[in-house]
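User: Predict the structure for this protein chain, please.
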Amino acid sequence: MPERYDNLFLHDTVSRINYTNPQQNGPRFRLPPRDAGQHGANIQRQLDAAWQRYQEELTSRQAVAVPAREGMYLEFESAPGYELKIKSLEDLRMGVRLLNVRAVTVGENTVQRATIFVPHDKRAHFLNKTEAYMESGRNKPLLASIEEVRQAVLESFWQGDADWMPAADVPVWCEIWWSSDRPEVLAAFKEVSAALEIQLKEESIYFPERTVILAFVNRSHLLELVQTSPYIAEFRRAPETARFFIEQSNRGQREWVDDLLARLQVLPDSQVSVCVLDTGVNNGHALLGPLMEDDDRHSYNPGWGTYDDDGHGTEMAGIAAYGDLQDAVTATTPVQVAHKLEAVKILPPVGDNNPELYGAITSQGISKAEIQRPEYQRILCMAVTTDAYSVNDGRPDSWSGAIDEIASGYLDDRKRLFFISAGNVRNGEDYLNYPTSNISCRVESPGQAWNAVTVGAYTEKDTLTDPDLQSAQRVAPREGLSPFSTTSCLWEQNKWPIKPEILLEGGNLIRDDLGCFTCDDLSVLTTYHKPAEQLFTCFGQTSAATAQAAWMAAQLQVAYPSAWPETIRGLMIHSADWTSQMREQFLPANPSKGDYHHLLRTCGYGVPDLAQARWCAQNSVNLIVQESLQPYDRNGSRYATKDMHIHQLPWPQEVLLALGEQTVRMRVTLSYFIEPSPGEIGWKDRYRYASCALRFDVNNVNEDLNNFNRRLNAAARDESEFDNDSGSDRWLIGKNTRHRGSVHSDIWEGTAADLATSNLIGIYPAIGWWRERHGLGRWNKEIRYSLIVSLSTEAETVDLYTPIINMIRIRVPIEITR
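Assistant: Here is the predicted structure, written as structure tokens:
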């Protein structure tokens, strides 16, 4: 696994004062103590022994005219408690490929194992490195990190529990991962599979330098594939769908639950909570009880009780607690949960609330949880939406306005992070018109709330294990928009925020001659509200996606306790990207900015990546600024713009200039909470619904501070609906689209040389009701914002992190949370 570092939280970048650096030394690669001569000689003997075994097997297969690969698979193992110098094991120029890396428990210690392919004519590659290590100490980080090296065996390629590996003569569905994305490699594999009578799924998945295909194989098949092909990277058991668990008896489900409980590690003093606003949650379920106290269950109406009569709230809670519950159940390693659960019942046991009351019910329900636990950093999660009595055209209503108010802290100066589902395509007939039906079905109230993160759904569910369903067609392709997800494509495009902002797993549908149907195979596993009857049930749609988003946000809040709600929200969106399937579904061959606008209103910013939101890497660095500014002031009887911020970021200019024409990527995300207009009179006008709007811009190539400052002043004076600047073409989304709502994110991709001087980020205000309705006394308020800037390149050998850290230490203090 590549080395990972915490995100960098910068302070006072506006005024160029010194940073604080609690960490004096950079990340250091630990090595066990070694005697180079003795250790190198031992590695050489192991390499020779592995080569000898490979030669014997090759000769044996050639003697009987059996196909054999032209090269050797090696497995390297670290010393216990240490890691391998992974990036030094691979040398693509020599054809030496890194195939997989695994952490393995040996006794009481953990070792790291890596599988490598060495071409037949490159036998001396590692021998030469070892010789140099023994003679002069060269290659020490690589060689000293190695404890053992041997010829790889079948287990070297298996990912997951060894018990999941197929038996010698009993085939099961497995994922075959190839270390190439070239079509001819897949074609060769299909020829070998046909000769071995291996059944394959027609679909395959392509990643950079990886291809994945499902094969119905036994252990003998896997052994023969290793002997035959030089492109094996991994074998994995094809994941069982939720149906596997649902069809088990309650006793069988209990065994899975007990296994998870034995591995469960709950952080006892956590101050982070996911609060589910729904039908209530039954914490009598064995998987929910450890995370939820009885007095953390509330009800808007005490007469309703806190019991979950419907089941929806408990289903939400299972995912909010564990994320992908199926992954947690099937894992063999410890599962740590570092956040708590709370529940507020906002729906009555029978019937519905009057829609006009939903805003009040939501607000008062949250207040009950906050009175009980005022110390919690609370992530609010709600998948209750309505299409009744709502125009669903993006205009705020009383419910969404109340949520904007709650999130903004308008009444009590307490900011809150809120996740809301986008609502679902409800009519079964609409599914037959997928994905046109998604475009025509609009995000439901209160999903239009500006400050909330509205969550839609995509799906990776396309595997059917039920024999009766093998002929059924999946409605959505793998990694495509879920059939359930609503969109904002029919909203008035130039007024309202991009909704939904993100997509997460919401399940799929099958289709046959009779119509479209849900099935367990294409659903999400979660907790059932009547555990005495059964412990698991199937779940899906944008509700499941919203619960998973809240779980993800909780991971980030635990990792960065000082991060504002605006920051966690920004990181979620900042890390999101569209799958290749989404691009294929909704973008033409040569997309314009208008095409990206349509994609955003369909799929939001895509699927968030928790690892990218949580970590930096050497070739990908996240810089975060949390600041405040006063957007307006009074000059006599006139009210006008007051503050603009220019952040001069630590920038690896020399590294970028050295990279020249290599492609680099910069992403900028600005997140803040608006205060909603106090009355419906302003809701028809975008700039009057928001208390204040903020904008960001980046200096153009070779644009100095003075010229950039003049351009920002001109932009702040321009109160037109659209902003224009000379550098707009270099942005993927562009200002006219990215400035919708109260979270703005855009991507610049180009040469490193062009980006080398673009390290100035400007934040400036645009018109809002704080300024226009100054009689309300908010014109001198400050607004908080979070600015997230990422600099990255796909070249893993490029180190951007170290020069940024070094520059920060020399120039200014910085806070690095650990």
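Residues 15-27, 720-726, 812-818 have pLDDT under 50 and may be disordered.
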